[in-house]
Amino acid sequence: MAADADAGASAAVTTDREGTHDEPLPGTPTADAGLGWAVAGLLLVVALAALTRFLTTNVPTWTEGTAFGDVAESVEFPVYAIALGLLGNAVLVATHLKDRLAAGFRTELFIKTGVVLLGASVNLSLIVTAAVPAIVQALALVSSVFLFTWWWGGRFGLDDKLRALLATAVSICGVSAAISAAGAVQAKREQLAYAATLVIVFALPSIFLLPWLADVLDLTPAVAGAWIGGNIDTTAAVAAAGTIAGEDALAIAAIVKSTQNVLIGVVAVALTAWFAFRVERRPDAEAPGGGEIWRRFPKFVLGFLAASVIATVYTSNVGPDAAKPVIAVANDLRTLFFILAFVSIGLELRVRSLRTAGWRPVVVFGAAAVFNLVVGLGLSTVLFRGFEA
Amino acid sequence: MSVQKSSPAAEPAGTPVRRAQRLHLSEDWLATVVGLVLLVLVLTGVITGPVVP
């Protein structure tokens, strides 16, 4: 009986009949939200980011010598940013302002700009050295996690389109991948909203869990970074976890995550063809061209590489001592964009669609996340053992 | 009578999923340009430490 109820609820994300029609998709404004509301939303993000910066700087001083002093000293800015974002989220939901202001919560834009700036602090030689293990890990992890999630989703009777969205999201890069997959398989908006929500709900605890586990397991910074980059779904959450794990782990996590991001285009094109010719067997379908891979290619990865090249050339020209304070300014800017992204990720979280979707997709996604965690740890340990970040 | 071919990825323009996809792709380029411009401004000394709050 309970299972039937859950199955019925699960249909809310697979049909047009009910559910979350009014649920805005990630990063897209609602119909009645104008530019003024978007600017107001952006100002809110900036205000909470300023408060994050203020708390990160002052809380350790305020609590010095108290029982909370040692804890406050070790709390990094992602913790304050996400907590303030979630707090703001609760206030906006209570005041019914969230949907109007949501257009200003630009997590993807902020985090991608931050990742481009991160490229300035990653020496090109590190990217070149890490490229081979990162590519091997990405190919093995993406294909195994995708196939596992697809199979497991089938065992739980999920709709094929939702299976494709969840499998792509958990195996590649969360919300970005879900958006690409939604276009490829022509998913419904409530399915995309649901997949995006699941990604963020699972990513938030991972931000704190993985760096802690890496510490408990005594992983090297390179292995920890590769594990974080290969496992956490959204790039914003990878950046947050990497920041907590340390600068060296963050660099490797960014390289590994960027490598996975590159696979979005390939997977989206494969899904497009698979759904058209094998799942739906549309007689009028055309095969997707190679241009589709480029169209879906995450261009900010090129920005990350370009920033690394520019900064490496700059450093070799002016010398490491002169370059260090200048690159530090770029790092400070990167931190600002990361804070904006972490605040936005907290503000954007929506749990409404999860309530209507039932337990099956949650179980599928949860099992896939655990599978990803275990296989990812094995691959990171083998591929990045002895690697110097 | 011509049979209209539909690309497998094709979806009616203006649908929410399509809009999200378009916005996502344009933000990719915007982030790349903004990030690189900021880096160049830092390296050329236009943005220095005190400018960052």
UniProtKB/TrEMBL annotation, chain A:
Q: Which residue ranges have biased composition labelled Low complexity?
A: 1-12
Q: Name one GO cellular component term.
A: plasma membrane
Q: Which UniProt keywords apply?
A: Cell membrane, Membrane, Transmembrane, Transmembrane helix
Membrane-spanning segments = 35-56, 77-97, 109-127, 134-152, 164-185, 192-214, 260-277, 297-315, 335-351, 363-384
Question: Which InterPro entries does this entry report, sorted A to Z?
Answer: UPF0324_pro (IPR018383)
Q: Where in the cell is it found?
A: Cell membrane
Membrane topology per record: Multi-pass membrane protein
Per the record, which residues fall in region Disordered? Answer: 1-28
Name residues in a coiled coil.
none
Its primary localisation, in coarse terms, equals membrane
Pfam families according to UniProt: Cons_hypoth698 (PF03601)
Ranges of Basic and acidic residues composition bias in the record: 15-24
Which family is this protein grouped under? Belongs to the UPF0324 family.
- Give the protein's recorded name: Sulfate exporter family transporter
Automatic annotation (TrEMBL), chain B:
Task: Alphabetically list the UniProt keywords.
Answer: Membrane, Transmembrane, Transmembrane helix
Q: Where are the transmembrane segments?
A: 29-52
Q: Does the keyword Membrane apply?
A: yes
How is this protein named in the record? Answer: Uncharacterized protein
